[in-house]
């Protein structure tokens, strides 16, 4: 991805950047209102966050404990909407469930987004895990690994080649061509294992998103990924991305403590844990502020005034 402005600014070896999950709202266990998302996205951009992240969810499933149902609105539609109200911040999917979206339609959608917002789209892709979505679309969830590979191959053929010849269980392309083509190759970020082997993930992704773990466990995963990626792509940097729920305390000196899958603490403790993740090889962290005990505008402002400048002094963000 050399020369890709969005990718190069967001992912650099030995450095850490920060992003925010949409909706940017402290809704807790309640359904989010989705109010003030334009203003908050613009605040995040001005504060130095590098990416807004969108989930791909179709149906509300009470067993999934996700009151936001992703971000309620369709991920690619809402990404386009907020992209039109910002200018530089990257726009990421975490992640598009490719077995549930036809790859030709997906290629058309993301190529159009890339044309509208050049080199800002970070396309996270996954095999999906929400059974109700698969049932609703009549897609067999136990075949999602195969469907993911078939969609991946079809997508890459039609988005990158002129008048490709494609014979696939997903469809046939003969003497026809997808338009528009993206102006730059869109980064493809694998999410989890996508029902594939670790080798397949390391070979085919431009980067890898994996679930949050304590630094000592995450370090082992990152080292394994980098070794495998280097075997397929010597001298090519592959970034590692992870989500992280946080609760930033008003007391700047509050000690670090655990919350489900994340951390609570004052700005010094949060900065310290971010440095620790940076040092083990994490290149980007996306924050979920849904459980924030403070107004999200205050949290964004504190990142802007203290945490991001502190990291930049280390030449990391």
From TrEMBL:
Keyword Flavoprotein carried by entry: yes
Alphabetically ordered keywords of this record: Flavoprotein, FMN, Monooxygenase, Oxidoreductase
Name of the molecule in the record: Luciferase-type oxidoreductase, BA3436 family
Molecular function in Gene Ontology: monooxygenase activity; oxidoreductase activity, acting on paired donors, with incorporation or reduction of molecular oxygen
NCBIfam families in the record: lucif_BA3436 (TIGR03571)
Ranges where the Luciferase-like domain occurs: 27-263
InterPro entries per UniProt: Diverse_substr_monoxygenases (IPR051260), Luciferase-like_dom (IPR011251), Luciferase-like_sf (IPR036661), Luciferase-type_oxidoreductase (IPR020020)
UniProt signal peptide: none
